[in-house]
Write a structure and sequence with these properties.
single chain, alpha/beta, globular, seven-stranded mixed sheet, Rossmann fold
């Protein structure tokens, strides 16, 4: 899929403010330093679309980006940002949970995980909740350029082994690098197929 148009539509702090266009929504979420904004910009080929910051936890709202006038890319707040206050963390969690559980047009949620790290408890708990609630999701490994091919293969295999303790079938898995622009075609092709169904 070629992205010919990508524009910011709106930011929402509660689901009652979400766009009413009825377009399918593909949302991206992950821990607050996983490289989500960089991935959004890489996918859309638009370097300033999502604000990239050296400070984790900058995305505080649900951000909708209108793509090709046919679907929304949704940038969700990162979870597990330790330096946010407890009330802020609870607010982020409420925003995320409301959207994931009640967003009427959510077609797919992409959970971003850092390819360099062991499976993180907070990610695994979130993925488990998605399974329990029947939310369709995929896993996107970020920062794959920071590893050798053998390290990456070992880490992905380890992740799958950990998932297999809870899951009989794996969700779709994508390997990406915002710096190298790798994984972009695969991810966009996957979204394109769902948009056209």
């Amino acid at each position: 899929m070629q992205i010919t148009k990508a524009q910011f539509q709106c930011s929402s702090e509660k689901i009652s403010q979400l766009p009413k266009d009825g377009l399918p929504e593909f949302a991206f979420i992950g821990r607050s330093n996983v490289g989500k904004s960089s991935l959004v910009n890489m996918l859309t080929n638009h370097s300033g679309l999502a604000k990239v910051s050296g400070t984790p936890g900058k995305t505080r709202l649900i951000n909708h980006f209108r793509i090709n006038d046919t679907w929304f890319l949704v940038d969700l707040p990162g979870y597990g940002y330790a330096r946010a206050s407890r009330s802020q963390r609870e607010q982020f969690a409420r925003i995320i949970t409301d959207y994931v559980m009640k967003g009427e047009h959510l077609h797919m949620l992409f959970v971003l995980v850092d390819a360099r790290l062991e499976p993180q408890k907070i990610d695994l708990q979130f993925i488990e909740m998605l399974g329990e609630e029947g939310v369709p999701f995929g896993i996107v490994f970020t920062k794959t350029d920071k590893l050798s091919a053998s390290q990456l293969n070992r880490n992905v295999t380890h992740y799958k082994t950990t998932l297999s303790e809870q899951w009989e079938e794996f969700p779709p898995i994508f390997l990406t690098s915002s710096e190298k622009k790798s994984g972009r075609e695969e991810l966009l092709a996957y979204i394109g197929n769902l948009v056209n169904q």
